[in-house]
Amino acid sequence: MSRHPLTSDWYPAINKPAAVLHWLNHVETDAEFIVILDADMILRGPITPWEYGAERGQPVSTPYEYLIGCDNELAKIHTRNPGACDKVGGVIIMHVEDLRKFALLWLHKTEEVRADKAHYATNFTGDIYSSGWISEMYGYSFGAAELNLRHIIRRDILIYPGYIPEPGVNYKVFHYGLRFFVGNWSFDKADWRGTDMVNTCWKKFPEPPTPSSLSRAVENALQRDLLSIECAEALNKALQLHHERRKCPVKSTINMHSALLGMKDDESKELVHKTRNLPVPKFSANVSQFRHPKIIDRSLRIWMIGIWTLSVVGFLVVISMVLSSRKGETSRIKMTRKKKPYTGLSEKNPYEMEVRSET
Prior knowledge:
Elements: H1 15-26, E1 33-36, E2 41-43, E3 60-63, H2 73-78, E4 88-95, H3 96-115, H4 122-125, H5 135-146, E5 152-153, E6 158-159, E7 173-175, E8 180-182, E9 185-187, H6 219-245, H7 251-262, H8 265-276, H9 293-339, H10 352-358
Parallel strand pairs: 3-5, 6-7
Antiparallel strand pairs: 1-4, 2-7, 3-4, 8-9
Region (Disordered): 338-359
Protein name: Hydroxyproline O-arabinosyltransferase-like domain-containing protein
Membrane topology: Single-pass membrane protein
């Protein structure tokens, strides 16, 4: 739902609360906790809610410190409990019963903030584009404040590629929302908005540098770049798996087709002619001894089927001939009986002849 069905407002970020509400209304689950991520996030490992302190009535999330609206009049306008507004979002770990109460309010508050164009300015929202783009984030924080859901804020769950990681922290989520660099190579999701990465077979992002090419001089920078490379490789790996599941044609076939399309008509015809006239390798007369066992078995089965078929046909022919001869003999007997002269004797009484002679 990128466009609002009632207001026609084009706002793809509303998908997040709308999708959560739809899921809750259409899916039966026995899960105690629900983990919610953004679309531009990659899960690096399992998230165990209780390891981060999540409880019913106390969700866990990651810091969004630029949500300055929690501290100014924006919160006072859109929530009755501005003091409970937490600057959080992105990764959300919430008890399913809390989520059932909260989901519809999250959607309504998102619509409410999105409609408040008078407070789109950066000094109210922290949105550098002053476009209301982060209305969904405020919808979450204001909705949670309404229900007095106070968050445990964890900094060890999510990391942006390009940021220097805290030593020893095993981050569970990449958030590739911003441009990040590894040397002269960089990646920004915004650069690819006009490219159909999903439906173009074997399409992928530019490969990042290899880990072996990185400098080991500064440990923090090394760990930062290694995480950035991991994120980029994960994106390309996901695209690779997606194209395989779509059963995209083999790359060599695509390359050959593209090459032919790029040639002039005469050049393509010449290439096809050359391909057709490639020499055929000659095999020796004893090539049969090198046949694969499966080929031999297949030939044997064919011979057996042929012999069996001929036997059945021969049997049917013999039976047909026997039946035909018997039919002819029966016909001759009937004809003989019809030609026999009448003697006046009854076949049923053989003594009738004697009686007649005496009289």
